[in-house]
Design goal:
196 residues, three-stranded mixed β-sheet, 29% helix
Length: 196
């Protein structure tokens, strides 16, 4: 972490060895900001991931140029687990959504039904969508199976744009692709997948 940096001698506040920063990655010392694995936002669970670091760095650069910046929404940070089968996840899980008071509606679709999955022999896995019943807003998309660490980018855009399940249903998904599972899971969230 910060051992050997002598951070406290310049006035930086540390918490359990991490440099405390605000939502814009500023420390309590004028002119000093920090990003990366050495920081804490004062809240537990902020992800220490390379893609989060790049986003933080860009955020800091934009702020230094006087551009409008918004704090990072940690609910929109995609997680990737590089195993076999792969896991991709972004947003709230069903349990997290319920704990935050949402009336949850879910839909899932197996990769094994897809023509592309059958052609490539990669039929294991599924996509699951977590949505708010009242607003139809997508709260989370989670998947396990081949190419999930790539497909999670589509899910991240959906959350970033505050897409509804209906938006995903109306989005044209190329055929045959693994991405069709996201559209099919959206249909399942509204009652029934087209090709189940």
């Amino acid at each position: 972490m910060t051992a050997g940096l002598d951070a406290e001698s310049v006035g930086l506040q540390l918490e359990k060895g991490y440099i405390k920063v605000d939502d814009h990655y500023r420390t309590g010392v004028p002119g000093i900001s920090a990003v990366g694995d050495v920081i804490t936002l004062g809240t537990p669970g902020h992800p220490q991931l390379a893609h989060v670091l790049v986003c933080r760095r860009d955020h800091h650069r934009r702020a230094n140029r006087g551009q409008d910046v918004r704090p990072l929404n940690y609910d929109h940070v995609p997680g990737c687990t590089y195993c076999d089968p792969e896991i991709g996840s972004v947003g709230l899980t069903e349990r997290e959504a319920r704990e935050r008071g949402f009336d949850v509606r879910i839909g899932a679709f197996p990769f094994g039904v897809l023509g592309r999955a059958k052609m490539s022999g990669e039929t294991e896995g599924f996509v699951k969508i977590v949505a708010d019943r009242a607003s139809d807003e997508v709260l989370g998309i989670h998947m396990i199976g081949s190419r999930s660490t790539e497909l999670v980018a589509v899910a991240t855009v959906a959350l970033r744009l505050q897409s509804t399940v209906e938006d995903l249903i109306r989005t044209l998904h190329a055929h045959p692709t693994m991405a069709e599972a996201i559209g099919e899971a959206a249909h399942a969230t509204h009652g029934a997948a087209l090709h189940s």
